[in-house]
Amino acid sequence: MLPVFGLSLIFSLLMCVHVVRSGREIYWIFIILIAQPFGALVYAFAIVLPELLGGTTARRVASVTRDTLDPTRDYRQARAAYDDSPTVANAIRLGQASAGMGRHEDAERLFREAAQGVHAEDPTLLLGHANALIELGRYGEALEDLDRLGKDKAQGRTPQAALALGRAYEGLGRFTEADTAYDWAAGRLPGLEAPARYAAFLARTGKLDEARAHLAEIDRRVARADPVFRKEGRQWRDLAAAAIAAQG
After folding, report:
1. What is the pLDDT of residues 163-192, one digit of tens each?
2. Listed residues 182, 199, 223: the one ending a domain
3. SS3 call for 73
4. CB 133 within 8 Å of CB 145
5. Which end of the chain is more exposed for a tag (fewer CB within 10 A), N or C?
6. Same domain for 97 and 155?
7. Do the beta carbons of residue 206 and residue 247 sit within 8 Å?
8. Integer-rounded Cα radius of gyration of the chain
9. Which structural domain range is residue 52 located in?
10. Same domain, 155 and 217
11. pTM above 0.90?
12. 177 and 97, same structural domain?
């Protein structure tokens, strides 16, 4: 056991050296040393391995792992950047981080205040503001943003914008338009949010057979997903399943 412990300690120390030399957050050292050897393995999997391998999948694995260990990290960094320099780019970053933390009133204010002057028609600001308004139940105001966004044919007619349109139309009781927007987004937007929201909408509007068919496809996609991303997929799957159960 002693040689194994020695190797574990050496590995953990090497990971600590990497933390210091690469300028990573200091909390990684505590994770590595307190939970060794598992802390060192987590760090190697989340940080070192993606650096060595590169690629989109490796970066997504690292991002998911970091978010699981430190879910407020992006918000803290965005808040610090905005406080240091309240630029439009930093307002967008903080607005998105605020939305991710469920702070939709803060997100709405940040996007609204940034969308001034030459930035009044910025697609990212308009969509971010519309999504914040939707979360706050202000569907009519959201639709105004999305109508302005739709005038930009290059960046305003995206699957993300279609999903927001679907939610806004549903909130306003315009179900035919909502169905079209949801359907278009669900077939084009990566991930399971759009299919899950569409299935939930179908259930709420009495189309239970269609909703169940969409849920079955979501279940198949969750089962095939990488284990690292399966938790997020199940969250969207549960949203759709809860809407179906409520109507069934």
Report:
1. 999 999 999 999 999 999 999 999 999 899
2. 182
3. helix
4. yes
5. N
6. yes
7. yes
8. 22
9. 2-69
10. no
11. no
12. yes
Q: Are 244 and 212 in contact (CB under 8 A)?
A: yes
DSSP designation for 119: G
Give tens-digit pLDDT for 124-142: 999 999 999 999 999 999 9
Nearest-angstrom CA–CA distance, 89 and 81: 10
Q: Tokens for 170?
A: 């549903």
Q: Is the pLDDT of residue 53 over 60?
A: no
Q: Which distant-in-sequence residues (6+ apart) come within 8 Å of 61 by Cβ?
A: 45, 46, 50, 226, 228
Closest CA to 195 of 162, 154, 171: 162
Both structure tokens of 113: 């205040």
The residue out of 138, 158, 182 marking a domain boundary is 182
CATH of the domain at 223: 1.20.58
Q: How confident is the model at residue 70 (pLDDT cuts 50, 70, 90)?
A: low
Q: Do 87 and 116 meet the contact criterion of CB atoms below 8 Å apart?
A: no
Tokens of 21: 């030399």
Total count of domains within the chain: 3
Would you give the DSSP letter of residue 207? Answer: -
Determine the residue type at 229: F
